[in-house]
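Late entry, evening session. Most of the bench is empty. Finally got around to the prediction I had been postponing all week. Sequence below, unchanged from the version circulated by S.P.
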Amino acid sequence: MNTPNQSDPAANAPIEPAQPEAAPTRTHRWGLGAFFFAQAIFVLVSVTLAAALGSPDGMALVLMLVLPTVLAGAVAVLITVVRGNGPRLDFGLEWRWSDVTTGLAIGGIGLVTTTIATMLWAKWMGPDAQSTVSSLVDGVQLPPALAVVIFLHIWLVAPLCEELLYRGLLWGAMERLRWSQLNVFVLSTAVFAIGHLEPERTALLLVIAIPIGVARMVTGRLTASVVAHQVNNFLPALGLLLLSLGLLPA
């Protein structure tokens, strides 16, 4: 019978257990300037289109609503590719069922609180209470295809693009400065509300942003906040769809 070689230390050494693979760290070379640059793109494109198109309808209206947000979101992604590791690693933007279910749950709670807050805000502001998007669509009856494009943008696309900016670039820039998660949450929520440039709705936007930021904070990834934001935007998007089709009174 063969016995271990007593003179061979390697033969008698204990077997080390396999070490788990370390989780990837989000190291990137962009900071607050990246967020301000992407936000400036959004503002400049919005102002330019508003000056060029005046009171738009039809395709011009769709262009004014869609283009600034999509361009800003695309710039955010491009920054992560050029100065970081891409949105999957820098933002945690990846498909995970756990993040989706968390986003759905928190977004559902947020939808209830947002609906109540919107009703209170509308009662406080009176009959003229409208968002910027609602004021653009008010009185404009769109072809069904364009109305559906706006509906899908407000429901699905705009939340993704806004999350890339506020809970992506801004959140990641503050994390790079080693701010606490609570401070990152509070400041990004405030900047989200102010960044919409609707002073009369700032308080309402703060309420809307809280559950979205919570989804980002508890998971550490952007997917959950995107889903929560999309859940929150469904009813407003549906209302705009019915309004733009003439099926809902202004």
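Two things to note before I forget:
The mean pLDDT is 86.
The radius of gyration is 23 Å.
Will write this up properly tomorrow.
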